[in-house]
Protein backbone atom coordinates (compact mmCIF):
# COMPACT_ATOMS: atom_id res chain seq x y z
CA UNK A 1 0.00 0.00 0.00
CA UNK A 2 2.68 2.39 1.12
CA UNK A 3 4.99 1.54 -1.77
CA UNK A 4 2.20 2.27 -4.21
CA UNK A 5 1.82 5.73 -2.71
CA UNK A 6 5.54 6.38 -2.98
CA UNK A 7 5.51 5.31 -6.61
CA UNK A 8 2.59 7.65 -7.17
CA UNK A 9 4.38 10.68 -5.76
CA UNK A 10 7.60 9.82 -7.60
CA UNK A 11 5.82 9.58 -10.93
CA UNK A 12 3.92 12.75 -10.20
CA UNK A 13 7.20 14.56 -9.56
CA UNK A 14 8.74 13.21 -12.76
CA UNK A 15 5.78 14.34 -14.80
CA UNK A 16 5.92 17.74 -13.13
CA UNK A 17 9.58 18.08 -14.07
CA UNK A 18 8.86 17.20 -17.70
CA UNK A 19 6.07 19.74 -17.78
CA UNK A 20 8.14 22.52 -16.29
CA UNK A 21 11.18 21.71 -18.44
CA UNK A 22 9.76 23.37 -21.56
CA UNK A 23 9.41 26.67 -19.71
CA UNK A 24 12.88 26.31 -18.22
CA UNK A 25 14.31 25.85 -21.70
CA UNK A 26 12.56 28.92 -23.07
CA UNK A 27 13.82 31.04 -20.18
CA UNK A 28 17.36 29.70 -20.57
CA UNK A 29 17.40 30.29 -24.32
CA UNK A 30 16.10 33.80 -23.93
CA UNK A 31 18.61 34.48 -21.17
CA UNK A 32 21.44 33.22 -23.35
CA UNK A 33 20.30 35.34 -26.31
CA UNK A 34 20.03 38.41 -24.10
CA UNK A 35 23.45 37.87 -22.56
CA UNK A 36 25.17 37.70 -25.97
CA UNK A 37 23.20 40.54 -27.50
CA UNK A 38 23.35 42.92 -24.55
CA UNK A 39 27.09 43.51 -24.88
CA UNK A 40 26.64 43.96 -28.63
CA UNK A 41 23.96 46.61 -28.13
CA UNK A 42 26.30 48.36 -25.70
CA UNK A 43 29.14 48.37 -28.27
CA UNK A 44 27.18 49.18 -31.42
CA UNK A 45 24.02 50.89 -30.21
CA UNK A 46 20.55 49.43 -30.57
CA UNK A 47 19.35 52.40 -32.66
CA UNK A 48 22.18 51.99 -35.19
CA UNK A 49 21.44 48.28 -35.29
CA UNK A 50 17.72 48.55 -35.94
CA UNK A 51 17.75 51.57 -38.27
CA UNK A 52 20.97 50.91 -40.24
CA UNK A 53 20.41 49.95 -43.87
CA UNK A 54 23.79 48.37 -44.63
CA UNK A 55 24.76 44.86 -43.58
CA UNK A 56 28.52 44.39 -44.15
CA UNK A 57 29.52 42.30 -41.14
CA UNK A 58 33.02 41.34 -42.29
CA UNK A 59 34.16 44.67 -43.74
CA UNK A 60 36.42 47.14 -42.00
CA UNK A 61 34.76 48.92 -40.26
CA UNK A 62 31.88 46.44 -40.08
CA UNK A 63 28.29 47.64 -40.51
CA UNK A 64 25.47 45.90 -38.72
CA UNK A 65 22.27 47.53 -39.96
CA UNK A 66 19.33 45.13 -40.03
CA UNK A 67 16.62 47.39 -41.45
CA UNK A 68 16.96 45.74 -44.86
CA UNK A 69 16.89 42.28 -43.25
CA UNK A 70 13.74 43.13 -41.32
CA UNK A 71 12.21 44.51 -44.51
CA UNK A 72 13.11 41.23 -46.22
CA UNK A 73 11.42 39.13 -43.56
CA UNK A 74 8.42 41.45 -43.63
CA UNK A 75 7.97 41.25 -47.42
CA UNK A 76 8.26 37.48 -47.52
CA UNK A 77 5.84 37.04 -44.62
CA UNK A 78 3.33 39.45 -46.12
CA UNK A 79 3.49 37.65 -49.46
CA UNK A 80 3.13 34.26 -47.80
CA UNK A 81 0.07 35.56 -45.92
CA UNK A 82 -1.48 36.70 -49.20
CA UNK A 83 -0.99 33.20 -50.61
CA UNK A 84 -1.85 31.14 -47.55
CA UNK A 85 -4.81 32.97 -45.96
CA UNK A 86 -7.34 32.79 -48.83
CA UNK A 87 -6.21 29.28 -49.81
CA UNK A 88 -6.12 28.01 -46.24
CA UNK A 89 -9.41 29.45 -45.05
CA UNK A 90 -11.27 28.32 -48.18
CA UNK A 91 -9.80 24.84 -47.85
CA UNK A 92 -10.81 24.70 -44.19
CA UNK A 93 -14.32 25.84 -45.07
CA UNK A 94 -14.60 23.15 -47.73
CA UNK A 95 -13.28 20.40 -45.46
CA UNK A 96 -15.46 21.39 -42.50
CA UNK A 97 -18.70 22.34 -44.22
CA UNK A 98 -19.00 21.08 -47.76
CA UNK A 99 -16.94 17.96 -48.35
CA UNK A 100 -18.53 14.51 -47.93
CA UNK A 101 -17.00 12.40 -45.14
CA UNK A 102 -14.86 10.22 -47.42
CA UNK A 103 -13.26 13.20 -49.17
CA UNK A 104 -12.88 15.03 -45.88
CA UNK A 105 -10.66 12.35 -44.35
CA UNK A 106 -8.62 12.11 -47.52
CA UNK A 107 -8.13 15.88 -47.67
CA UNK A 108 -7.25 16.17 -43.99
CA UNK A 109 -4.51 13.59 -44.17
CA UNK A 110 -3.28 15.16 -47.41
CA UNK A 111 -2.92 18.57 -45.77
CA UNK A 112 -1.20 17.01 -42.77
CA UNK A 113 1.22 15.29 -45.12
CA UNK A 114 2.16 18.71 -46.50
CA UNK A 115 3.37 19.64 -43.01
CA UNK A 116 5.65 16.62 -42.99
CA UNK A 117 7.72 17.73 -46.00
CA UNK A 118 11.10 19.00 -44.73
CA UNK A 119 11.70 22.66 -45.53
CA UNK A 120 14.96 21.96 -47.36
CA UNK A 121 12.99 19.78 -49.79
CA UNK A 122 10.47 22.57 -50.34
CA UNK A 123 13.36 24.96 -50.90
CA UNK A 124 15.02 22.64 -53.38
CA UNK A 125 11.82 22.06 -55.33
CA UNK A 126 11.22 25.82 -55.40
CA UNK A 127 14.74 26.45 -56.62
CA UNK A 128 14.57 24.11 -59.61
CA UNK A 129 10.91 24.59 -60.62
CA UNK A 130 9.41 27.83 -59.34
CA UNK A 131 12.42 30.15 -59.61
CA UNK A 132 13.01 29.71 -63.38
CA UNK A 133 9.23 29.89 -63.92
CA UNK A 134 8.89 33.18 -62.02
CA UNK A 135 11.75 34.66 -64.04
CA UNK A 136 10.28 33.79 -67.43
CA UNK A 137 6.58 34.41 -66.64
CA UNK A 138 7.12 37.88 -65.14
CA UNK A 139 10.14 38.67 -67.38
CA UNK A 140 12.37 39.49 -64.40
CA UNK A 141 16.17 39.73 -64.31
CA UNK A 142 16.18 36.89 -61.75
CA UNK A 143 13.60 34.51 -60.30
CA UNK A 144 15.27 34.49 -56.88
CA UNK A 145 12.80 36.97 -55.39
CA UNK A 146 10.61 37.63 -52.37
CA UNK A 147 7.69 36.54 -54.57
CA UNK A 148 9.06 33.03 -55.15
CA UNK A 149 9.85 32.75 -51.44
CA UNK A 150 6.35 33.89 -50.53
CA UNK A 151 4.68 31.21 -52.62
CA UNK A 152 6.77 28.39 -51.20
CA UNK A 153 6.37 29.67 -47.63
CA UNK A 154 2.65 30.10 -48.19
CA UNK A 155 2.50 26.37 -48.85
CA UNK A 156 4.43 25.71 -45.67
CA UNK A 157 1.96 27.78 -43.62
CA UNK A 158 -1.06 26.05 -45.19
CA UNK A 159 -1.23 22.94 -42.95
CA UNK A 160 -1.28 25.01 -39.75
CA UNK A 161 -3.87 27.43 -41.11
CA UNK A 162 -6.11 24.72 -42.55
CA UNK A 163 -6.17 22.39 -39.58
CA UNK A 164 -6.69 25.04 -36.89
CA UNK A 165 -9.24 26.99 -38.97
CA UNK A 166 -11.10 23.78 -39.62
CA UNK A 167 -11.31 23.06 -35.89
CA UNK A 168 -12.60 26.58 -35.32
CA UNK A 169 -15.24 26.27 -38.04
CA UNK A 170 -16.42 22.93 -36.73
CA UNK A 171 -16.69 24.36 -33.23
CA UNK A 172 -19.42 26.79 -34.39
CA UNK A 173 -22.61 25.50 -32.67
CA UNK A 174 -25.12 23.67 -34.88
CA UNK A 175 -28.04 25.82 -33.81
CA UNK A 176 -26.42 28.91 -35.39
CA UNK A 177 -26.45 27.23 -38.76
CA UNK A 178 -29.91 25.70 -38.25
CA UNK A 179 -31.26 29.12 -37.35
CA UNK A 180 -29.82 30.70 -40.48
CA UNK A 181 -31.02 27.91 -42.77
CA UNK A 182 -34.50 28.05 -41.18
CA UNK A 183 -34.68 31.74 -42.01
CA UNK A 184 -34.23 30.88 -45.67
CA UNK A 185 -30.49 31.64 -46.06
CA UNK A 186 -28.67 29.63 -48.73
CA UNK A 187 -25.77 27.41 -47.81
CA UNK A 188 -23.20 29.95 -49.01
CA UNK A 189 -24.97 32.79 -47.18
CA UNK A 190 -24.90 30.73 -43.98
CA UNK A 191 -21.22 30.03 -44.35
CA UNK A 192 -20.28 33.58 -45.28
CA UNK A 193 -22.54 35.49 -42.87
CA UNK A 194 -22.86 33.14 -39.88
CA UNK A 195 -20.15 30.47 -39.74
CA UNK A 196 -17.14 32.57 -40.75
CA UNK A 197 -17.80 35.47 -38.34
CA UNK A 198 -18.47 33.04 -35.50
CA UNK A 199 -15.23 31.18 -36.19
CA UNK A 200 -13.21 34.34 -36.82
CA UNK A 201 -11.20 34.39 -33.56
CA UNK A 202 -10.07 30.82 -34.22
CA UNK A 203 -9.22 31.63 -37.84
CA UNK A 204 -7.16 34.64 -36.78
CA UNK A 205 -5.32 32.44 -34.31
CA UNK A 206 -4.67 29.91 -37.09
CA UNK A 207 -3.32 32.63 -39.40
CA UNK A 208 -1.07 33.99 -36.65
CA UNK A 209 0.39 30.57 -35.86
CA UNK A 210 0.90 29.92 -39.58
CA UNK A 211 2.70 33.24 -40.00
CA UNK A 212 4.78 32.49 -36.91
CA UNK A 213 6.09 29.47 -38.77
CA UNK A 214 6.75 31.52 -41.93
CA UNK A 215 8.78 34.22 -40.23
CA UNK A 216 10.94 31.67 -38.46
CA UNK A 217 11.49 29.54 -41.56
CA UNK A 218 15.09 29.46 -42.71
CA UNK A 219 16.24 26.83 -45.15
CA UNK A 220 13.66 27.37 -47.89
CA UNK A 221 14.00 31.17 -47.87
CA UNK A 222 17.77 30.97 -47.93
CA UNK A 223 17.58 28.88 -51.09
CA UNK A 224 15.02 30.87 -53.07
CA UNK A 225 14.90 34.54 -52.03
CA UNK A 226 18.29 35.56 -53.45
CA UNK A 227 19.77 36.88 -50.18
CA UNK A 228 20.45 40.45 -51.30
CA UNK A 229 20.64 42.69 -48.22
CA UNK A 230 18.71 45.61 -49.70
CA UNK A 231 15.39 47.24 -48.91
CA UNK A 232 13.24 45.82 -51.71
CA UNK A 233 11.28 48.14 -53.99
CA UNK A 234 8.62 45.50 -54.43
CA UNK A 235 7.75 41.86 -54.11
CA UNK A 236 9.65 41.01 -57.31
CA UNK A 237 13.05 41.96 -55.86
CA UNK A 238 15.57 39.69 -54.15
CA UNK A 239 15.54 40.01 -50.37
CA UNK A 240 17.51 38.66 -47.44
CA UNK A 241 15.64 37.57 -44.33
CA UNK A 242 16.82 37.68 -40.72
CA UNK A 243 16.73 33.91 -40.36
CA UNK A 244 18.75 33.32 -43.53
CA UNK A 245 21.38 35.78 -42.32
CA UNK A 246 21.82 33.95 -39.02
CA UNK A 247 21.96 30.55 -40.69
CA UNK A 248 24.33 31.59 -43.47
CA UNK A 249 26.80 33.44 -41.28
CA UNK A 250 26.81 31.56 -37.99
CA UNK A 251 29.37 29.02 -39.17
CA UNK A 252 32.00 31.60 -40.01
CA UNK A 253 32.02 33.65 -36.84
CA UNK A 254 34.55 33.21 -34.08
CA UNK A 255 32.90 32.77 -30.69
CA UNK A 256 32.59 36.06 -28.84
CA UNK A 257 33.40 38.34 -31.80
CA UNK A 258 31.26 41.35 -32.67
CA UNK A 259 29.81 39.54 -35.67
CA UNK A 260 28.91 36.50 -33.52
CA UNK A 261 27.10 38.69 -31.01
CA UNK A 262 25.33 40.65 -33.75
CA UNK A 263 23.77 37.40 -35.00
CA UNK A 264 22.47 36.68 -31.51
CA UNK A 265 21.03 40.19 -31.49
CA UNK A 266 19.12 39.40 -34.68
CA UNK A 267 17.93 36.30 -32.83
CA UNK A 268 16.59 38.46 -29.99
CA UNK A 269 14.64 40.68 -32.41
CA UNK A 270 13.27 37.59 -34.16
CA UNK A 271 12.35 36.00 -30.83
CA UNK A 272 10.43 39.12 -29.83
CA UNK A 273 8.53 39.22 -33.13
CA UNK A 274 7.50 35.56 -32.96
CA UNK A 275 6.66 35.95 -29.28
CA UNK A 276 4.26 38.80 -30.11
CA UNK A 277 2.68 36.81 -32.93
CA UNK A 278 2.17 33.75 -30.74
CA UNK A 279 0.84 35.92 -27.93
CA UNK A 280 -1.80 37.45 -30.23
CA UNK A 281 -2.69 33.98 -31.50
CA UNK A 282 -3.10 32.80 -27.91
CA UNK A 283 -5.39 35.70 -27.07
CA UNK A 284 -7.70 34.81 -29.93
CA UNK A 285 -7.61 31.09 -29.14
CA UNK A 286 -8.74 31.83 -25.59
CA UNK A 287 -11.49 34.10 -26.78
CA UNK A 288 -12.72 31.34 -29.07
CA UNK A 289 -12.87 28.87 -26.19
CA UNK A 290 -15.04 31.20 -24.13
CA UNK B 1 57.58 37.69 -54.70
CA UNK B 2 55.94 36.90 -51.38
CA UNK B 3 54.21 33.90 -52.93
CA UNK B 4 57.45 32.61 -54.37
CA UNK B 5 59.04 32.77 -50.91
CA UNK B 6 56.16 30.85 -49.35
CA UNK B 7 56.27 28.37 -52.19
CA UNK B 8 59.96 27.84 -51.67
CA UNK B 9 59.52 27.29 -47.94
CA UNK B 10 56.73 24.80 -48.46
CA UNK B 11 58.82 23.02 -51.08
CA UNK B 12 61.63 22.72 -48.52
CA UNK B 13 59.14 21.25 -46.10
CA UNK B 14 58.10 18.61 -48.59
CA UNK B 15 61.68 17.80 -49.42
CA UNK B 16 62.47 17.49 -45.72
CA UNK B 17 59.66 15.20 -44.77
CA UNK B 18 58.22 13.47 -47.74
CA UNK B 19 58.66 9.93 -46.40
CA UNK B 20 55.35 8.89 -44.86
CA UNK B 21 55.67 6.74 -41.75
CA UNK B 22 53.92 3.46 -41.63
CA UNK B 23 53.12 1.52 -38.51
CA UNK B 24 52.97 2.78 -34.97
CA UNK B 25 50.99 5.97 -35.09
CA UNK B 26 48.74 4.70 -37.85
CA UNK B 27 48.04 1.26 -36.41
CA UNK B 28 44.95 2.37 -34.51
CA UNK B 29 41.83 3.93 -36.05
CA UNK B 30 42.49 7.65 -36.45
CA UNK B 31 40.14 10.34 -37.59
CA UNK B 32 40.93 13.65 -39.28
CA UNK B 33 38.48 16.53 -39.49
CA UNK B 34 39.02 18.88 -42.42
CA UNK B 35 36.84 21.94 -42.86
CA UNK B 36 36.65 25.16 -44.83
CA UNK B 37 36.69 26.55 -48.36
CA UNK B 38 33.98 25.33 -50.72
CA UNK B 39 36.34 26.05 -53.61
CA UNK B 40 38.74 23.25 -52.72
CA UNK B 41 36.39 20.91 -50.87
CA UNK B 42 36.08 18.67 -53.94
CA UNK B 43 39.84 18.52 -54.36
CA UNK B 44 40.55 17.65 -50.73
CA UNK B 45 37.68 15.15 -50.75
CA UNK B 46 39.37 13.44 -53.68
CA UNK B 47 42.70 13.43 -51.83
CA UNK B 48 40.97 11.92 -48.81
CA UNK B 49 39.48 9.11 -50.90
CA UNK B 50 42.79 8.23 -52.52
CA UNK B 51 44.66 8.61 -49.24
CA UNK B 52 42.22 6.29 -47.47
CA UNK B 53 43.00 3.58 -50.06
CA UNK B 54 46.68 3.71 -49.14
CA UNK B 55 46.22 4.18 -45.39
CA UNK B 56 43.02 2.32 -44.47
CA UNK B 57 43.38 3.03 -40.74
CA UNK B 58 42.60 6.73 -41.10
CA UNK B 59 39.06 8.08 -41.32
CA UNK B 60 38.88 11.53 -42.92
CA UNK B 61 35.86 13.82 -42.77
CA UNK B 62 35.86 16.71 -45.26
CA UNK B 63 33.21 19.44 -45.04
CA UNK B 64 32.84 22.80 -46.78
CA UNK B 65 31.16 25.96 -45.58
CA UNK B 66 33.69 28.62 -46.61
CA UNK B 67 37.21 29.64 -45.64
CA UNK B 68 35.93 31.71 -42.72
CA UNK B 69 34.11 28.66 -41.43
CA UNK B 70 37.35 26.67 -41.66
CA UNK B 71 39.33 29.26 -39.70
CA UNK B 72 36.57 29.55 -37.11
CA UNK B 73 36.69 25.76 -36.68
CA UNK B 74 40.49 25.72 -36.44
CA UNK B 75 40.37 28.51 -33.83
CA UNK B 76 37.60 26.76 -31.90
CA UNK B 77 39.67 23.53 -32.18
CA UNK B 78 36.87 21.59 -33.86
CA UNK B 79 38.92 20.61 -36.91
CA UNK B 80 42.47 19.34 -37.56
CA UNK B 81 43.03 21.02 -40.91
CA UNK B 82 41.38 24.18 -42.26
CA UNK B 83 41.06 24.58 -46.03
CA UNK B 84 41.21 28.14 -47.26
CA UNK B 85 41.23 30.06 -50.50
CA UNK B 86 42.75 33.14 -48.81
CA UNK B 87 45.64 33.72 -46.39
CA UNK B 88 44.78 34.01 -42.72
CA UNK B 89 43.93 37.59 -41.66
CA UNK B 90 45.67 39.56 -38.92
CA UNK B 91 42.40 39.67 -36.99
CA UNK B 92 42.20 35.88 -37.09
CA UNK B 93 45.85 35.55 -36.05
CA UNK B 94 45.12 37.62 -32.94
CA UNK B 95 42.05 35.53 -32.15
CA UNK B 96 44.11 32.39 -32.71
CA UNK B 97 46.70 33.56 -30.20
CA UNK B 98 43.92 34.24 -27.69
CA UNK B 99 42.59 30.71 -28.16
CA UNK B 100 46.05 29.17 -27.90
CA UNK B 101 46.17 28.13 -31.55
CA UNK B 102 49.21 28.73 -33.78
CA UNK B 103 48.12 28.40 -37.42
CA UNK B 104 50.65 26.83 -39.79
CA UNK B 105 50.28 27.54 -43.51
CA UNK B 106 50.72 25.20 -46.52
CA UNK B 107 50.17 26.19 -50.15
CA UNK B 108 48.69 23.28 -52.06
CA UNK B 109 47.96 24.73 -55.48
CA UNK B 110 46.74 27.75 -57.43
CA UNK B 111 43.31 28.77 -58.59
CA UNK B 112 42.11 31.15 -61.25
CA UNK B 113 38.85 32.80 -60.29
CA UNK B 114 36.68 32.70 -63.38
CA UNK B 115 34.06 35.37 -64.05
CA UNK B 116 31.14 33.52 -65.58
CA UNK B 117 28.01 34.41 -67.54
CA UNK B 118 25.30 32.42 -69.27
CA UNK B 119 26.36 30.99 -72.67
CA UNK B 120 23.52 33.02 -74.28
CA UNK B 121 25.18 36.25 -73.17
CA UNK B 122 27.13 37.82 -76.07
CA UNK B 123 29.59 39.68 -73.82
CA UNK B 124 33.02 38.02 -74.11
CA UNK B 125 35.65 40.44 -72.78
CA UNK B 126 35.73 42.72 -69.74
CA UNK B 127 38.49 44.77 -68.14
CA UNK B 128 39.15 44.84 -64.39
CA UNK B 129 37.52 48.31 -64.29
CA UNK B 130 34.41 46.95 -66.01
CA UNK B 131 34.21 44.19 -63.41
CA UNK B 132 34.47 46.69 -60.59
CA UNK B 133 31.70 48.81 -62.15
CA UNK B 134 29.48 45.74 -62.54
CA UNK B 135 29.93 44.29 -59.07
CA UNK B 136 29.55 47.67 -57.36
CA UNK B 137 26.47 48.39 -59.53
CA UNK B 138 27.98 51.58 -61.00
CA UNK B 139 26.78 50.24 -64.36
CA UNK B 140 23.71 48.05 -64.22
CA UNK B 141 22.83 47.24 -67.83
CA UNK B 142 24.43 44.70 -70.16
CA UNK B 143 24.17 47.11 -73.11
CA UNK B 144 26.96 49.23 -71.54
CA UNK B 145 29.26 46.33 -72.32
CA UNK B 146 27.94 45.45 -75.77
CA UNK B 147 25.32 42.99 -74.55
CA UNK B 148 21.53 42.89 -74.67
CA UNK B 149 19.45 45.70 -73.13
CA UNK B 150 18.78 44.01 -69.79
CA UNK B 151 19.56 44.47 -66.14
CA UNK B 152 22.70 42.81 -64.77
CA UNK B 153 22.03 40.33 -61.98
CA UNK B 154 25.08 40.24 -59.69
CA UNK B 155 25.80 36.91 -58.04
CA UNK B 156 28.24 36.89 -55.16
CA UNK B 157 29.19 34.41 -52.44
CA UNK B 158 28.28 34.80 -48.76
CA UNK B 159 30.68 36.96 -46.77
CA UNK B 160 32.16 33.88 -45.03
CA UNK B 161 33.59 32.66 -48.32
CA UNK B 162 37.27 33.07 -49.19
CA UNK B 163 36.19 33.54 -52.80
CA UNK B 164 34.05 36.54 -51.74
CA UNK B 165 36.95 38.08 -49.79
CA UNK B 166 39.49 37.47 -52.55
CA UNK B 167 37.27 38.90 -55.26
CA UNK B 168 36.45 41.95 -53.13
CA UNK B 169 40.09 42.66 -52.29
CA UNK B 170 41.46 41.83 -55.71
CA UNK B 171 38.83 43.24 -58.08
CA UNK B 172 36.91 45.86 -56.09
CA UNK B 173 39.60 47.20 -53.76
CA UNK B 174 42.65 46.38 -56.00
CA UNK B 175 44.75 45.22 -53.07
CA UNK B 176 44.06 48.28 -50.93
CA UNK B 177 42.55 46.46 -47.95
CA UNK B 178 41.32 49.64 -46.28
CA UNK B 179 39.47 50.81 -49.39
CA UNK B 180 35.79 51.73 -49.12
CA UNK B 181 34.67 49.52 -52.01
CA UNK B 182 31.97 46.92 -51.28
CA UNK B 183 29.77 44.63 -53.30
CA UNK B 184 26.54 46.41 -54.19
CA UNK B 185 23.77 45.70 -51.64
CA UNK B 186 21.68 44.51 -54.59
CA UNK B 187 24.05 41.59 -55.23
CA UNK B 188 22.58 38.17 -54.54
CA UNK B 189 24.59 36.29 -51.92
CA UNK B 190 24.55 32.63 -52.91
CA UNK B 191 25.22 29.89 -50.35
CA UNK B 192 27.73 27.98 -52.50
CA UNK B 193 29.80 28.17 -55.67
CA UNK B 194 27.58 25.45 -57.09
CA UNK B 195 24.55 27.70 -56.50
CA UNK B 196 26.26 30.48 -58.50
CA UNK B 197 27.05 28.03 -61.30
CA UNK B 198 23.44 26.74 -61.29
CA UNK B 199 21.83 30.18 -61.37
CA UNK B 200 24.22 31.47 -64.04
CA UNK B 201 23.62 28.46 -66.26
CA UNK B 202 19.86 29.13 -66.32
CA UNK B 203 19.75 32.94 -66.14
CA UNK B 204 20.97 34.92 -69.18
CA UNK B 205 21.19 38.17 -67.13
CA UNK B 206 23.47 36.83 -64.41
CA UNK B 207 27.17 37.35 -63.80
CA UNK B 208 29.10 35.61 -61.03
CA UNK B 209 32.52 34.30 -60.05
CA UNK B 210 33.57 30.74 -59.30
CA UNK B 211 36.80 28.77 -58.92
CA UNK B 212 38.12 27.25 -62.15
CA UNK B 213 37.08 23.83 -60.88
CA UNK B 214 33.44 24.77 -61.49
CA UNK B 215 33.81 25.69 -65.17
CA UNK B 216 31.78 23.52 -67.53
CA UNK B 217 29.76 23.53 -70.73
CA UNK B 218 26.80 25.32 -69.12
CA UNK B 219 28.89 28.35 -68.16
CA UNK B 220 30.82 30.85 -70.27
CA UNK B 221 33.97 32.33 -68.76
CA UNK B 222 34.85 35.96 -69.48
CA UNK B 223 38.30 36.91 -70.78
CA UNK B 224 39.67 39.57 -68.45
CA UNK B 225 42.17 42.36 -69.16
CA UNK B 226 44.30 43.93 -66.43
CA UNK B 227 43.57 47.41 -67.82
CA UNK B 228 42.27 49.19 -70.92
CA UNK B 229 45.40 48.56 -72.99
CA UNK B 230 46.26 45.00 -71.91
CA UNK B 231 45.16 41.87 -73.76
CA UNK B 232 42.05 39.92 -72.73
CA UNK B 233 43.04 36.62 -71.12
CA UNK B 234 40.94 33.49 -70.60
CA UNK B 235 41.31 31.65 -67.27
CA UNK B 236 43.28 28.48 -68.04
CA UNK B 237 45.95 26.49 -66.22
CA UNK B 238 48.65 28.05 -68.42
CA UNK B 239 47.52 31.66 -68.01
CA UNK B 240 47.27 31.27 -64.22
CA UNK B 241 50.72 29.64 -64.03
CA UNK B 242 52.29 32.36 -66.17
CA UNK B 243 50.44 34.99 -64.10
CA UNK B 244 48.96 36.62 -67.22
CA UNK B 245 45.38 35.98 -66.01
CA UNK B 246 44.67 38.82 -63.56
CA UNK B 247 42.38 37.08 -61.04
CA UNK B 248 44.28 34.15 -59.56
CA UNK B 249 45.24 33.12 -56.08
CA UNK B 250 47.01 30.45 -54.04
CA UNK B 251 45.04 27.77 -52.16
CA UNK B 252 45.95 26.91 -48.58
CA UNK B 253 45.71 24.32 -45.86
CA UNK B 254 46.20 25.44 -42.25
CA UNK B 255 47.01 23.29 -39.23
CA UNK B 256 47.36 24.07 -35.53
CA UNK B 257 51.13 24.12 -34.94
CA UNK B 258 53.63 22.03 -36.87
CA UNK B 259 51.68 18.91 -37.79
CA UNK B 260 52.72 15.37 -36.97
CA UNK B 261 51.30 11.90 -37.46
CA UNK B 262 48.37 11.45 -39.79
CA UNK B 263 47.88 15.21 -40.36
CA UNK B 264 51.43 15.55 -41.65
CA UNK B 265 51.14 12.40 -43.76
CA UNK B 266 47.96 13.67 -45.33
CA UNK B 267 49.45 17.05 -46.29
CA UNK B 268 52.58 15.33 -47.60
CA UNK B 269 50.35 13.13 -49.72
CA UNK B 270 48.59 16.18 -51.14
CA UNK B 271 51.91 17.76 -52.07
CA UNK B 272 53.32 14.55 -53.57
CA UNK B 273 53.27 13.91 -57.32
CA UNK B 274 50.08 11.83 -56.94
CA UNK B 275 48.32 14.52 -54.90
CA UNK B 276 49.33 17.25 -57.33
CA UNK B 277 48.03 15.20 -60.23
CA UNK B 278 44.63 15.25 -58.50
CA UNK B 279 45.00 19.05 -58.21
CA UNK B 280 45.35 19.18 -61.97
CA UNK B 281 42.51 16.68 -62.51
CA UNK B 282 40.13 18.87 -60.50
CA UNK B 283 40.95 21.86 -62.75
CA UNK B 284 43.26 23.71 -60.40
CA UNK B 285 46.89 24.53 -61.05
CA UNK B 286 49.51 22.33 -59.35
CA UNK B 287 52.54 23.89 -57.65
CA UNK B 288 54.77 20.80 -57.91
CA UNK B 289 55.47 19.22 -61.28
Summarize the model shown.
The complex is a heterodimer of chains A (290) and B (289). Chain A has 290 residues and is mostly helical. Helix content of chain A is 78%, strand content 1%.
Mean pLDDT of chain B: 84
Report, as a whole number of angstroms, the end-to-end distance of chain B. 20 Å
Number of spatially distinct domains of chain A = 2
The computed structural class of chain A is mainly alpha
CATH class of the largest domain in chain A: Mainly Alpha
Instruction: Summarize the helix and strand pattern of chain B as letters.
Output: HHEHEHEHEEHEHEHEEEHEHH
Overall strand count of chain A? 2
Largest interface: A-B, 33 and 34 residues
CATH class of the largest domain in chain B: Alpha Beta
CATH topology of the largest domain in chain B: D-Maltodextrin-Binding Protein, domain 2
Give the % helix of chain B: 25-40%
Helix content of chain A: over 70%
The averaged pLDDT of chain A comes out at 89
Number of helices of chain B: 11
Low-confidence stretches of chain B: 4-27
Summed up, the domain count of chain B is 2
Task: Give an overview of the whole structure.
The complex is a heterodimer of chains A (290) and B (289). With 290 residues, chain A is mainly α. Chain A has helices at residues 2-44, 46-51, 67-98, 101-115, 119-137, 146-170, 174-182, 187-216, 219-224, 242-249, 258-289, and strands spanning 55-56, 63-64. In chain A, strand 1 (55-56) and strand 2 (63-64) form a beta hairpin. Chain A is globular and about 75 Å long. Chain B is of the alpha/beta class. Chain B folds into two domains: 2-109 and 250-281, Periplasmic binding protein-like II (D-Maltodextrin-Binding Protein, domain 2, 3-Layer(aba) Sandwich), CATH 3.40.190.10; 111-248, D-Maltodextrin-Binding Protein, domain 2. Helices cover 36% and strands 22% of the residues of chain B. Chain B contains eleven helices and eleven strands. In chain B, helix 3 (41-54) links the parallel strand 1 and strand 2. The two termini of chain B are 20 Å apart. Mean pLDDT of chain B is 84; it is low at 4-27. The A-B interface holds A 53-60, 68, 127, 132, 135, 141-144, 222-223, 226-230, 238, 240, 248-249, 251-255, 257 and B 65-66, 68-69, 71-72, 75-76, 92, 95, 150-153, 158-160, 165, 177-178, 182, 185-191, 198-199, 202-203, 205-206.
Amino acid sequence: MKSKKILDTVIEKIIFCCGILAIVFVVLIFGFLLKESFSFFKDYGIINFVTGKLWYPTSAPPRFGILSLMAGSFFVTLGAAAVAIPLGVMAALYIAEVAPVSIRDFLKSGVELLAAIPSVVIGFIGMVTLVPLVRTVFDLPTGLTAFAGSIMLGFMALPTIVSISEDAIRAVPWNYKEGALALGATRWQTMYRIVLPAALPGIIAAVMLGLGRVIGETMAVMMITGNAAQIPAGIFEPVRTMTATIAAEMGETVKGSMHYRSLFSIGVILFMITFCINFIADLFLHRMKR
Amino acid sequence: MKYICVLFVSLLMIAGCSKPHHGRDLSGEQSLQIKGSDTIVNLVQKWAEEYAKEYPGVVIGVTGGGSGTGFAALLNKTCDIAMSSRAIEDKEKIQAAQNGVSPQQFIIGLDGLAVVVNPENVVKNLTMDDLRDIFMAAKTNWKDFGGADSKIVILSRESNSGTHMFFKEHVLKRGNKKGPEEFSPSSLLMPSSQAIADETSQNPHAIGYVGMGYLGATLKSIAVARNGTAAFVEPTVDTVLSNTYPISRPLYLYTNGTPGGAIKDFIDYGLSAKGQKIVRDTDFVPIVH
